[in-house]
Specification:
heterodimer; A: 94 residues; mainly alpha; 3 helices; 0% strand; B: 136 residues
Chain lengths: 94, 136
């Protein structure tokens, strides 16, 4: 990170926004009326974590976090579909 | 300088979109409306962050990285699929056929009457709805 004041502030703001979003998701997972709400909150959590990883990549100036973000996107999608399928049918692979 | 302002504006807008998406998860009344907040607002937020990252690495590091485009493509492809699965699970677990609005065609909701044969979509709407919803 070079001495760019504005970009630093914007990065900090975005970090704070997505961090507060993660806390909201955590609250929704703890207090949810039904199981599909929890799946939705977990899926949103994965998306927020991807955003945090990419922001951390900008801050450190290295591209090594993109593989981690890609893996998060893939495993998040597969686990969400598997969970929804499981509570729908009681089985994942039929 | 202009690039710095542009990237900063993208990051701030992305943060606001992400925050609104996660706040909608708390604020909205039931799951069918709650589905809209993360699948639309948060996806736009992550897309803004990824575009900002591409611009940052292109301008300040001097290299174009394609990983962000891959992540954006993957997220934009998978968000509607997960929303569809969650809505389907919600319909089958928490709602009855009476809670759903009438389709206005001859067929009922596709998820309530699955068939092994491929079904052509019904384009002409019938005048009389097949299921009466006003009997409760």
């Amino acid at each position: 990170m070079t001495d760019l004041g504005l970009l630093d502030w914007a990065l900090t703001f975005a970090f704070a926004c997505f961090g507060v979003g993660l806390l909201f998701n955590l609250y929704r997972i703890a207090r949810a009326p039904a199981v599909p709400d929890r799946i939705l909150a977990l899926d949103t959590m994965v998306i927020n974590v991807i955003a945090l990883l990419v922001l951390y990549g900008i801050r450190t100036g290295s591209g090594i976090n993109f593989e981690a973000a890609m893996l998060f996107a893939m495993t998040g999608f597969v686990s969400t579909v598997a969970y929804a399928k499981f509570i729908l049918r009681g089985d994942i692979i039929e | 300088m202009i690039a710095e302002i542009l990237i900063s504006a993208l990051l701030v807008m992305a943060g606001i979109f992400g925050l609104v998406g996660s706040f909608g998860l708390l604020k909205l009344p039931d799951l069918m409306t709650r589905l809209h907040a993360p699948t639309k607002a948060t996806t736009v937020g992550v897309g803004g962050v990824l575009i900002a990252s591409m611009a940052y690495f292109l301008i300040f590091e001097g290299k174009l990285s394609w990983h962000e485009l891959l992540i954006t493509l993957f997220l934009l492809l998978t968000a509607p699929i997960t929303a569809n699965f969650i809505a389907k699970a919600h319909i089958h677990r928490e709602m009855t056929a009476r809670d759903l609005p009438v389709t206005g065609t001859e067929r009922d909701w596709a998820t309530l009457m699955p068939s092994d044969e491929p079904v052509q979509p019904v384009m002409n709407r019938v005048d009389e709805p097949p299921r009466q919803v006003s009997d409760h």
